[in-house]
Amino acid sequence: MSFIDEIKARAKQDLKRIVLPEAMDMRILKAAQIVLSEKLCQIVLIGDETEIRIKAQMEKIEIGEACIVNPVKSDKMERYAKLLSEIDQTVSFEQAKEWMKNPVYFGMLMVKAGEADGFVSGAMNTTKDILKTAMRIFDKKDTKILSTALLMLVPNQKYGGKDGVYIFSDCALNENPGYIALSEIAMASAKTYEKFTAKKAKVAMLSYSTMGSATSKYTEKVIKATQRAKQKWPALMIDGEMQLDSAIVPEIAQVKAPNSSLKGEANVLIFPDINAGNIGCKLVERLGKAQMFGPICQGLEKPINDLSRGCSVEGIVGTIIMTAIQAQN
Fold it and tell me: What is the pTM of this model?
């Protein structure tokens, strides 16, 4: 059974209610159709029901079982506005009511209020807009820092993650994390990998240097992050600093990092900054023809996940399923 088939089977065991606020994006509607037809979870679309159904009908997309909620007509608008003004006391009730007209705010408050289980957006909105709103509404959980991870499915894989399943982090949120933040990102990403695969995370702290082959403030940060993670979480299998080939190619690991516990079999790749991470994931997606799911938010109390604006229907479906699985706990 493929990884995607496995997570679909898990999603079906306990159907969750996932909010999609970008209901006028054709890719979102097509993804909703697939999820509903395969009975993977329940779907809530945010927007004007007439407009959404006309758009779907024009493209011959079937979304009949989707729940569609128009914030402007909803009897929950004032309750959600009150909740938001209580969470963020810098926001007045009247201002919060205006913000409830925004599908992103309304959808997230639906999750916060416990009337939906998870939220996926980003096909039309920027990562900054999604995560800024999420951090305003939701508390952090089990981490000092909010971060993101991408789940990458790499075809014809023969390297570290031999099943082709990798976690890349952080490629979307933390621009230049310090060593403490980088170690927290590593631990959160290991948990994400194990949550979705039920396999042991093997975490590589990536750099342009392997085990002291170069020395600079950039390598020092990665070394300190690795040391902190090893001290704080002794059971975590983690090593670094190391170049990508040392992390995922056993033959090269034998030469460059012979004493590493990873042995060239890393499946969680932690990038030193957002430049490296964002470039790396898109190279693998486009040139390596990998499937990319996420960004998956790590460290929030509820499953609130982002999409790349260049996302595919397939990627949206995968992210919806993963959000549902996160909500099963």
Answer: 0.87
